[in-house]
Fold this sequence. Notes:
The chain is an alpha+beta fold. It has a single domain, classed as Immunoglobulin-like. The chain contains five helices and nine strands. The strands form two sheets. A five-stranded antiparallel sheet has the order 1-2-3-7-6, with no helix packed on it. Strands 5-4-8-9 form a four-stranded antiparallel sheet. Helix 1 runs antiparallel to helix 2. The longest helix has 14 residues. The two termini are 20 Å apart.
Amino acid sequence: HKKIRNVRLGNHVSLLFEDETTLRYQVQEMLRIEKIFEEEGIQSELDVYNALVPDGSNFKATMLIEYTNETERKAALAKLIGIEDRVFVQVEGQDRVYAIADEDLERENEEKTSAVHFVRFELTPAMKNALKSGAQMMIGCDHPNYPAHLEELPQETLVSLLQDLD
């Protein structure tokens, strides 16, 4: 399920489109790793992750900027300030929808961006209807230091994302 909802954008950026299933696994993993067993701690984790569940009019994703070499990663993060605001989805025949990133979180500073961002793509009713009627969706980034486009989502990914819309 997670693999289907993970979209690579170029060589160094991936978007994991979240839903209740991906987040359930994430919460279980966090509870296990952090050895949280009491109800209050579990509820606290759930509250954090529930904000990442799509609400029927949007897609929500965890955006990862991935470089294996630490020196290369530091240099890239310094050049990619603001990238989270330049990632978009575009439903066939519709305008681009740029990500609303890191709500209530400060994920970058003047020197570098974070390697992890939480993004939301808010869709209009026309966009939702177009997707439900078979329109394709492109994902891209027009940051000057990281131009990347995926012209067409794999069909299984698009089908999975359609489940997020009401």
